[in-house]
Inverse folding.
Protein backbone atom coordinates (compact mmCIF):
# COMPACT_ATOMS: atom_id res chain seq x y z
CA UNK A 1 0.00 0.00 0.00
CA UNK A 2 2.53 2.58 1.09
CA UNK A 3 4.61 4.16 -1.63
CA UNK A 4 7.83 5.91 -0.95
CA UNK A 5 7.03 8.26 -3.74
CA UNK A 6 4.44 10.84 -2.93
CA UNK A 7 1.25 10.32 -4.89
CA UNK A 8 -0.68 13.36 -6.08
CA UNK A 9 -4.09 13.71 -4.49
CA UNK A 10 -7.00 14.16 -6.78
CA UNK A 11 -8.71 17.34 -5.74
CA UNK A 12 -12.28 18.23 -6.50
CA UNK A 13 -13.01 21.87 -7.20
CA UNK A 14 -16.46 23.42 -7.31
CA UNK A 15 -17.96 23.34 -10.79
CA UNK A 16 -19.48 26.77 -10.22
CA UNK A 17 -16.93 28.96 -8.43
CA UNK A 18 -13.83 26.83 -8.87
CA UNK A 19 -12.88 26.81 -5.19
CA UNK A 20 -12.47 23.67 -3.10
CA UNK A 21 -16.06 22.82 -2.09
CA UNK A 22 -15.34 23.43 1.58
CA UNK A 23 -14.56 27.08 0.75
CA UNK A 24 -17.63 27.76 -1.40
CA UNK A 25 -19.30 29.24 1.67
CA UNK A 26 -16.65 31.98 1.55
CA UNK A 27 -16.72 32.26 -2.22
CA UNK A 28 -18.29 34.87 -4.46
CA UNK A 29 -21.78 33.34 -4.49
CA UNK A 30 -22.49 30.40 -2.21
CA UNK A 31 -26.14 30.23 -3.26
CA UNK A 32 -25.17 29.51 -6.83
CA UNK A 33 -22.80 26.75 -5.73
CA UNK A 34 -25.38 24.94 -3.62
CA UNK A 35 -27.07 22.81 -6.29
CA UNK A 36 -23.71 21.68 -7.58
CA UNK A 37 -22.45 20.94 -4.09
CA UNK A 38 -25.48 18.86 -3.18
CA UNK A 39 -24.98 16.79 -6.28
CA UNK A 40 -21.22 16.51 -6.41
CA UNK A 41 -19.79 17.12 -2.97
CA UNK A 42 -22.45 16.06 -0.50
CA UNK A 43 -19.91 15.61 2.28
CA UNK A 44 -18.83 19.23 2.28
CA UNK A 45 -21.99 20.69 3.82
CA UNK A 46 -23.90 17.96 5.64
CA UNK A 47 -26.82 20.23 6.62
CA UNK A 48 -27.26 21.39 3.05
CA UNK A 49 -27.23 17.83 1.82
CA UNK A 50 -29.69 16.77 4.48
CA UNK A 51 -32.11 19.49 3.51
CA UNK A 52 -31.78 18.60 -0.13
CA UNK A 53 -32.12 14.91 0.61
CA UNK A 54 -35.40 15.52 2.42
CA UNK A 55 -36.68 17.63 -0.42
CA UNK A 56 -35.45 15.27 -3.07
CA UNK A 57 -36.80 12.06 -1.68
CA UNK A 58 -40.01 12.31 -3.66
CA UNK A 59 -38.14 13.41 -6.73
CA UNK A 60 -35.73 10.49 -6.60
CA UNK A 61 -38.41 8.05 -7.66
CA UNK A 62 -38.78 9.24 -11.20
CA UNK A 63 -35.26 10.34 -11.87
CA UNK A 64 -32.90 8.20 -13.77
CA UNK A 65 -30.04 8.09 -11.34
CA UNK A 66 -26.36 8.50 -11.96
CA UNK A 67 -26.98 10.30 -15.21
CA UNK A 68 -24.01 11.13 -17.33
CA UNK A 69 -24.87 14.74 -17.92
CA UNK A 70 -21.75 16.79 -17.48
CA UNK A 71 -23.48 20.13 -17.13
CA UNK A 72 -24.20 20.58 -13.50
CA UNK A 73 -25.83 23.40 -11.62
CA UNK A 74 -28.27 24.71 -14.18
CA UNK A 75 -30.12 21.47 -14.53
CA UNK A 76 -30.86 21.12 -10.87
CA UNK A 77 -31.85 24.73 -10.28
CA UNK A 78 -34.37 24.85 -13.09
CA UNK A 79 -37.01 22.70 -11.42
CA UNK A 80 -38.21 23.47 -7.95
CA UNK A 81 -38.74 20.34 -5.91
CA UNK A 82 -42.36 21.23 -5.07
CA UNK A 83 -43.37 20.94 -8.66
CA UNK A 84 -42.42 17.32 -8.78
CA UNK A 85 -44.11 16.54 -5.53
CA UNK A 86 -47.39 17.92 -6.86
CA UNK A 87 -47.12 15.85 -9.98
CA UNK A 88 -47.29 12.61 -8.06
CA UNK A 89 -50.40 10.59 -8.94
CA UNK A 90 -53.44 11.08 -6.78
CA UNK A 91 -52.14 14.43 -5.58
CA UNK A 92 -50.60 12.69 -2.63
CA UNK A 93 -47.39 14.07 -1.29
CA UNK A 94 -46.41 10.97 0.56
CA UNK A 95 -42.73 10.55 0.18
CA UNK A 96 -41.68 7.03 -0.29
CA UNK A 97 -38.04 6.39 0.27
CA UNK A 98 -36.34 4.86 -2.69
CA UNK A 99 -34.88 1.48 -1.92
CA UNK A 100 -31.25 1.93 -2.66
CA UNK A 101 -27.90 1.35 -1.07
CA UNK A 102 -25.07 3.83 -1.35
CA UNK A 103 -21.54 2.65 -0.75
CA UNK A 104 -19.17 5.57 -0.39
CA UNK A 105 -15.44 5.86 0.02
CA UNK A 106 -13.82 8.86 1.60
CA UNK A 107 -10.14 9.37 2.18
CA UNK A 108 -9.37 11.03 5.47
CA UNK A 109 -5.63 11.23 5.28
CA UNK A 110 -3.33 10.02 2.60
CA UNK A 111 -3.52 6.53 3.97
CA UNK A 112 -6.77 6.34 5.88
CA UNK A 113 -9.88 5.58 3.94
CA UNK A 114 -13.35 4.90 5.24
CA UNK A 115 -16.10 3.09 3.38
CA UNK A 116 -19.64 4.05 4.30
CA UNK A 117 -22.72 1.97 3.56
CA UNK A 118 -26.10 3.65 3.64
CA UNK A 119 -29.57 2.20 3.17
CA UNK A 120 -29.18 -1.42 4.25
CA UNK A 121 -32.15 -0.97 6.58
CA UNK A 122 -34.39 -0.26 3.59
CA UNK A 123 -34.01 -3.92 2.71
CA UNK A 124 -34.86 -5.09 6.18
CA UNK A 125 -31.25 -5.77 7.08
CA UNK A 126 -30.31 -5.17 10.71
CA UNK A 127 -27.44 -2.70 10.62
CA UNK A 128 -25.75 -4.25 13.62
CA UNK A 129 -25.68 -7.63 11.91
CA UNK A 130 -24.44 -6.19 8.65
CA UNK A 131 -21.75 -4.22 10.43
CA UNK A 132 -20.52 -7.37 12.18
CA UNK A 133 -20.44 -9.25 8.90
CA UNK A 134 -18.45 -6.46 7.21
CA UNK A 135 -15.99 -6.36 10.08
CA UNK A 136 -15.45 -10.09 9.90
CA UNK A 137 -15.26 -10.30 6.12
CA UNK A 138 -12.76 -7.47 5.75
CA UNK A 139 -10.95 -7.98 9.05
CA UNK A 140 -11.45 -4.34 9.82
CA UNK A 141 -13.19 -1.98 12.19
CA UNK A 142 -16.88 -1.61 11.35
CA UNK A 143 -19.51 0.29 13.24
CA UNK A 144 -23.01 1.66 13.01
CA UNK A 145 -22.92 5.43 13.30
CA UNK A 146 -25.30 8.28 12.90
CA UNK A 147 -24.62 9.91 9.56
CA UNK A 148 -24.91 13.57 8.62
CA UNK A 149 -28.58 13.15 7.73
CA UNK A 150 -29.31 11.69 11.17
CA UNK A 151 -29.82 8.32 9.61
CA UNK A 152 -27.75 5.42 10.72
CA UNK A 153 -25.05 4.15 8.44
CA UNK A 154 -22.23 1.66 8.62
CA UNK A 155 -18.65 2.87 8.61
CA UNK A 156 -15.96 0.39 7.68
CA UNK A 157 -12.32 1.35 8.14
CA UNK A 158 -10.42 0.99 4.90
CA UNK A 159 -11.06 1.16 1.20
CA UNK A 160 -13.44 -1.66 0.32
CA UNK A 161 -15.71 0.21 -2.06
CA UNK A 162 -16.18 -2.51 -4.63
CA UNK A 163 -15.50 -5.46 -2.35
CA UNK A 164 -18.36 -4.39 -0.14
CA UNK A 165 -20.74 -4.09 -3.08
CA UNK A 166 -19.85 -7.59 -4.16
CA UNK A 167 -20.17 -8.91 -0.63
CA UNK A 168 -23.60 -7.31 -0.25
CA UNK A 169 -24.98 -8.96 -3.37
CA UNK A 170 -23.54 -12.31 -2.32
CA UNK A 171 -24.74 -12.15 1.25
CA UNK A 172 -28.19 -10.61 0.96
CA UNK A 173 -29.86 -12.15 -2.07
CA UNK A 174 -32.88 -9.89 -1.63
CA UNK A 175 -30.76 -6.86 -2.53
CA UNK A 176 -30.55 -6.47 -6.30
CA UNK A 177 -27.30 -5.25 -7.78
CA UNK A 178 -29.26 -2.49 -9.48
CA UNK A 179 -30.11 -0.95 -6.11
CA UNK A 180 -26.47 -0.39 -5.25
CA UNK A 181 -24.69 2.84 -6.03
CA UNK A 182 -21.09 3.79 -5.43
CA UNK A 183 -19.42 7.10 -4.81
CA UNK A 184 -15.72 7.67 -4.55
CA UNK A 185 -14.15 10.60 -2.70
CA UNK A 186 -16.72 13.21 -3.51
CA UNK A 187 -17.09 12.11 -7.10
CA UNK A 188 -20.47 11.59 -8.68
CA UNK A 189 -22.68 8.77 -7.56
CA UNK A 190 -22.80 5.95 -10.13
CA UNK A 191 -24.70 2.68 -10.29
CA UNK A 192 -22.48 -0.15 -9.09
CA UNK A 193 -23.39 -2.11 -12.22
CA UNK A 194 -21.76 0.58 -14.39
CA UNK A 195 -18.79 1.20 -12.15
CA UNK B 1 1.04 39.70 -4.14
CA UNK B 2 -1.39 38.15 -6.61
CA UNK B 3 -4.54 40.04 -5.79
CA UNK B 4 -4.90 41.53 -9.23
CA UNK B 5 -2.43 39.37 -11.06
CA UNK B 6 -3.18 38.80 -14.75
CA UNK B 7 -1.32 37.71 -17.85
CA UNK B 8 -0.49 41.32 -18.53
CA UNK B 9 1.87 41.47 -15.61
CA UNK B 10 4.18 39.00 -17.27
CA UNK B 11 6.94 41.08 -18.73
CA UNK B 12 8.87 38.24 -20.29
CA UNK B 13 8.94 34.51 -20.58
CA UNK B 14 12.21 32.71 -21.09
CA UNK B 15 13.18 29.14 -21.46
CA UNK B 16 16.03 28.82 -19.01
CA UNK B 17 19.39 27.17 -19.56
CA UNK B 18 19.79 23.69 -18.18
CA UNK B 19 22.17 24.94 -15.52
CA UNK B 20 19.51 27.34 -14.28
CA UNK B 21 16.90 24.62 -14.51
CA UNK B 22 19.09 22.41 -12.30
CA UNK B 23 19.49 25.21 -9.80
CA UNK B 24 15.76 25.78 -9.59
CA UNK B 25 15.10 22.06 -9.12
CA UNK B 26 17.75 21.82 -6.44
CA UNK B 27 16.43 24.81 -4.61
CA UNK B 28 12.88 23.40 -4.63
CA UNK B 29 14.16 20.01 -3.48
CA UNK B 30 16.07 21.63 -0.62
CA UNK B 31 13.07 23.64 0.46
CA UNK B 32 10.59 20.75 0.14
CA UNK B 33 12.45 17.44 0.61
CA UNK B 34 9.21 15.46 0.35
CA UNK B 35 8.71 16.82 -3.12
CA UNK B 36 12.08 15.72 -4.41
CA UNK B 37 11.02 12.25 -5.59
CA UNK B 38 8.26 13.69 -7.75
CA UNK B 39 10.22 16.58 -9.24
CA UNK B 40 11.02 14.45 -12.27
CA UNK B 41 7.29 14.26 -12.92
CA UNK B 42 6.56 17.89 -12.12
CA UNK B 43 9.53 19.44 -13.87
CA UNK B 44 10.54 16.81 -16.42
CA UNK B 45 14.11 17.33 -17.56
CA UNK B 46 13.18 17.13 -21.21
CA UNK B 47 10.36 19.65 -21.01
CA UNK B 48 11.40 23.22 -21.49
CA UNK B 49 11.25 25.05 -18.19
CA UNK B 50 10.01 28.59 -18.54
CA UNK B 51 10.55 31.36 -16.08
CA UNK B 52 8.03 34.14 -16.44
CA UNK B 53 9.19 37.44 -15.03
CA UNK B 54 6.40 39.55 -13.65
CA UNK B 55 5.95 42.84 -11.86
CA UNK B 56 7.13 43.26 -8.29
CA UNK B 57 10.15 41.00 -8.81
CA UNK B 58 7.96 37.97 -9.08
CA UNK B 59 9.09 34.92 -11.03
CA UNK B 60 6.79 32.10 -12.09
CA UNK B 61 8.17 28.67 -12.90
CA UNK B 62 6.07 27.38 -15.77
CA UNK B 63 5.91 23.95 -17.41
CA UNK B 64 3.61 23.29 -20.35
CA UNK B 65 2.05 26.70 -19.77
CA UNK B 66 1.05 25.79 -16.22
CA UNK B 67 2.53 27.86 -13.39
CA UNK B 68 3.76 25.43 -10.73
CA UNK B 69 6.08 27.45 -8.51
CA UNK B 70 6.94 31.06 -7.88
CA UNK B 71 9.38 33.12 -5.95
CA UNK B 72 10.04 36.75 -5.20
CA UNK B 73 13.47 38.13 -6.08
CA UNK B 74 15.81 35.32 -5.05
CA UNK B 75 13.57 34.15 -2.25
CA UNK B 76 12.46 30.59 -1.59
CA UNK B 77 10.28 28.91 -4.18
CA UNK B 78 6.69 28.24 -3.27
CA UNK B 79 4.23 25.93 -4.99
CA UNK B 80 1.01 27.32 -6.40
CA UNK B 81 -2.03 26.45 -4.29
CA UNK B 82 -3.27 24.09 -6.97
CA UNK B 83 -0.01 22.17 -6.81
CA UNK B 84 -0.01 22.25 -3.02
CA UNK B 85 -3.51 20.76 -2.98
CA UNK B 86 -2.11 17.80 -4.88
CA UNK B 87 0.79 17.40 -2.47
CA UNK B 88 -0.63 18.78 0.76
CA UNK B 89 2.06 17.41 3.04
CA UNK B 90 5.11 19.05 1.50
CA UNK B 91 4.89 22.42 3.21
CA UNK B 92 5.00 23.33 6.85
CA UNK B 93 1.67 24.61 7.97
CA UNK B 94 -0.13 26.96 10.27
CA UNK B 95 -3.85 27.16 10.88
CA UNK B 96 -6.08 30.19 11.26
CA UNK B 97 -9.36 30.19 13.12
CA UNK B 98 -12.62 30.21 11.23
CA UNK B 99 -13.15 33.90 11.83
CA UNK B 100 -9.99 34.73 9.91
CA UNK B 101 -10.92 32.84 6.75
CA UNK B 102 -12.79 35.66 5.04
CA UNK B 103 -9.97 38.09 5.70
CA UNK B 104 -7.35 35.72 4.36
CA UNK B 105 -9.46 35.19 1.25
CA UNK B 106 -9.63 38.92 0.68
CA UNK B 107 -5.85 39.06 0.75
CA UNK B 108 -5.21 40.29 4.27
CA UNK B 109 -2.04 39.26 6.05
CA UNK B 110 -2.39 36.83 8.89
CA UNK B 111 -2.43 38.42 12.30
CA UNK B 112 -0.90 36.52 15.21
CA UNK B 113 -4.12 36.25 17.24
CA UNK B 114 -5.80 34.39 14.35
CA UNK B 115 -3.14 31.72 14.76
CA UNK B 116 -3.02 31.56 18.54
CA UNK B 117 -6.75 31.54 19.26
CA UNK B 118 -8.64 28.34 20.02
CA UNK B 119 -9.38 27.53 16.38
CA UNK B 120 -5.90 28.43 15.20
CA UNK B 121 -2.75 26.36 15.46
CA UNK B 122 0.96 26.58 14.89
CA UNK B 123 1.24 23.02 13.67
CA UNK B 124 4.90 23.12 12.74
CA UNK B 125 7.87 25.02 14.05
CA UNK B 126 8.87 27.51 11.41
CA UNK B 127 11.57 30.18 11.35
CA UNK B 128 10.97 33.74 10.21
CA UNK B 129 10.95 34.45 6.46
CA UNK B 130 9.90 30.93 5.51
CA UNK B 131 7.08 29.78 3.26
CA UNK B 132 4.13 28.15 5.01
CA UNK B 133 0.84 26.65 3.97
CA UNK B 134 -2.07 28.42 5.62
CA UNK B 135 -4.88 26.13 6.61
CA UNK B 136 -8.10 26.95 8.42
CA UNK B 137 -10.13 25.60 11.29
CA UNK B 138 -12.48 22.88 10.09
CA UNK B 139 -11.12 22.84 6.54
CA UNK B 140 -8.90 20.29 4.93
CA UNK B 141 -7.17 22.10 2.09
CA UNK B 142 -4.84 25.06 2.35
CA UNK B 143 -6.48 28.40 1.58
CA UNK B 144 -3.32 30.43 1.20
CA UNK B 145 0.44 30.34 1.05
CA UNK B 146 2.38 32.83 3.08
CA UNK B 147 5.76 33.89 4.30
CA UNK B 148 6.35 34.04 8.04
CA UNK B 149 7.18 37.52 9.36
CA UNK B 150 8.40 36.05 12.61
CA UNK B 151 9.14 32.55 13.85
CA UNK B 152 6.22 30.51 15.10
CA UNK B 153 7.78 30.77 18.56
CA UNK B 154 7.57 34.55 18.36
CA UNK B 155 4.07 34.45 16.93
CA UNK B 156 2.97 32.60 20.07
CA UNK B 157 5.01 34.79 22.39
CA UNK B 158 4.45 38.25 20.90
CA UNK B 159 0.91 37.46 19.70
CA UNK B 160 0.48 40.89 18.14
CA UNK B 161 0.61 42.26 14.61
CA UNK B 162 1.26 40.39 11.41
CA UNK B 163 2.51 36.84 11.86
CA UNK B 164 2.47 35.69 8.27
CA UNK B 165 2.41 37.67 5.05
CA UNK B 166 -0.31 36.46 2.74
CA UNK B 167 1.33 35.81 -0.62
CA UNK B 168 -1.09 33.68 -2.64
CA UNK B 169 -4.66 32.75 -1.73
CA UNK B 170 -7.72 31.05 -3.16
CA UNK B 171 -9.35 33.04 -5.94
CA UNK B 172 -6.53 35.54 -6.33
CA UNK B 173 -5.06 36.28 -9.72
CA UNK B 174 -2.59 33.41 -9.68
CA UNK B 175 -5.29 30.96 -8.65
CA UNK B 176 -7.29 32.08 -11.66
CA UNK B 177 -4.32 31.79 -13.98
CA UNK B 178 -4.57 28.15 -14.94
CA UNK B 179 -2.55 28.61 -18.10
CA UNK B 180 0.00 31.12 -19.17
CA UNK B 181 0.03 31.30 -22.94
ZN1 LIG C 1 -18.51 26.88 -5.27
Amino acid sequence: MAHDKLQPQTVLYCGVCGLPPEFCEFGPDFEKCKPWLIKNAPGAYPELTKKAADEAEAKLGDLRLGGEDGADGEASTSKPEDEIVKKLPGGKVKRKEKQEILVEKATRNKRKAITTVKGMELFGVKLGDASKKFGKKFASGSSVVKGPTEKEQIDVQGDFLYDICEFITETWKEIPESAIYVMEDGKRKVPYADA
Amino acid sequence: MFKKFTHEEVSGQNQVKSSVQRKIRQSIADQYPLLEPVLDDLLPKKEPLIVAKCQNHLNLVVINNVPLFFNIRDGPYMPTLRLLHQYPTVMKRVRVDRGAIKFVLSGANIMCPGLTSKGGALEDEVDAEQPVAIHAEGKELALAIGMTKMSTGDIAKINKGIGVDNIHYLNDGLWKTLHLD
Notes: The first strand of chain A starts at residue 101 and ends at 107. Chain A has six helices and six strands.
